[in-house]
Write a structure and sequence with these properties.
The protein has 8 helices and 14 strands. It has 358 residues and is of the alpha/beta class.
Length: 358
């Protein structure tokens, strides 16, 4: 989303709700580190904090990378005091909660695949993600049910995002509430940018922005009257189109970065504020790791430079205007992220049930 569309969404939210104040924040969960002398049994007087249970999660796939749904996973330990079973979901993911610390063994079975065991050790209070589990096809099996590929799952997640509309009207496509979102392909990034650009509500927001500019005689070189309004509208639409495609499709595809905002929804207010603001300059790569948000920063710079081609000559200011627009775009992203983190979820009725859980 470019500055123009973000600005329109923010203004609409403020006008509707009366300048809602923001309280935000999130901090990463830390895994407790215990020294060997403190890792004793309860009978030795171990503090309760050192015996706190943890969780184990992961994803089950086949050798091709397709997820395996309804795989049966059994979690046990040596003395059999631990014995839990779950089935993997439609996205191949599973999770065991309230698991006692210590060595464990995970046994995975699924129709058409060979049984696989994964050993491990869970520290007190640890949230452990098991490395990707790839099941092998059983010998003699020729008829195996094919599960959804990661690309197909990502496409289904995008379809859910395209239903997200503030008040059921305003597009809110560039935020994902899914706790386990998969990276987008280049094609999916371009499709999402296109659908945002040509959405009827986008045209209406641009019309409102152009109207405000005309009333305040912004970019006076365009003049007044219908002709002046048309030029302001075209310039605002050009801003949005170049910003959206450069910052959310072209550069994210080249740099392998995800253009979406990943809703956090948990943690302290302060940490959520810092998380939202930081996401204007950092983002998740397609590899799932956080990295500098070159796509947004360079996209704002490029869009600002291109805007010099069509703004009135007397309103251009060369490099200064380009840097100013880029700074405004980055700041608008930070404000939009704060609104997304604390407000938009409450105003967006079409969030899938599983994704709505903080």
């Amino acid at each position: 989303m470019t500055f123009q569309l973000k600005y329109g969404l923010i203004v609409l939210a403020f006008v509707t709700l009366g300048w809602t104040s923001f309280c935000l924040g999130q901090t990463p969960q830390l895994t407790p580190v215990t020294s060997p002398e403190h890792q004793r049994t309860a009978s030795d007087g171990e503090p309760s904090a050192q015996r706190s249970p943890g969780s184990i999660s992961g994803t089950v796939m086949d050798q091709s990378g397709a997820v395996i749904a309804r795989a049966r996973l059994r979690l046990t330990n040596e003395d059999h005091s631990l014995n839990q079973e779950v089935l993997s979901g439609d996205n191949g993911e599973f999770s065991f909660t309230n698991v006692a610390a210590g060595p464990f063994q995970l046994t995975i079975t699924s129709v058409g695949f060979g049984t696989q065991t994964v050993p491990g050790n869970l520290l007190p209070g640890e949230i452990q993600t098991v490395p990707q589990i790839a099941l092998l096809i059983s010998a003699g099996i020729t008829d195996v049910q094919v599960s959804l590929s990661p690309t197909e799952i990502a496409e289904a997640q995008i379809k859910d995002e395209e239903k997200q509309r503030v008040f059921g009207v305003i597009p809110n496509f560039y935020v994902t509430y899914d706790p386990h979102p998969l990276p987008l392909t280049s094609k999916q990034k371009y499709e999402l940018a296109w659908k945002t650009t040509v959405d009827p509500v986008t045209f209406a927001i641009i019309g409102g922005i152009a109207g405000v500019q005309q009333a305040e005689n912004t970019f006076s070189g365009y003049g007044q009257g219908l002709q002046g309004y048309a030029k302001r509208y075209a310039a605002s639409f050009a801003d949005l189109t170049t910003g959206t495609f450069l910052g959310s499709a072209v550069l994210p595809s080249l740099l392998k970065q995800d253009p979406r905002y990943f809703y956090k929804g948990s943690g302290s207010k302060r940490s959520r504020i810092l998380y939202a603001i930081a996401n204007s300059v950092i983002c998740k790569g397609d590899n799932g790791r956080w990295q500098p948000n070159y796509s947004n920063i360079l996209g704002n710079l490029a869009a600002g430079g291109i805007s010099n081609l069509y703004y009135p000559a007397q309103n251009r200011n060369g490099a200064e205007l380009t840097l100013e627009n880029a700074a405004i775009g980055t700041g608008a992203t930070a404000v939009a992220n704060l609104v997304e983190e604390f407000l938009m979820r409450k105003l967006t009725p079409n969030i899938p049930h599983d994704s709505a859980k903080p």
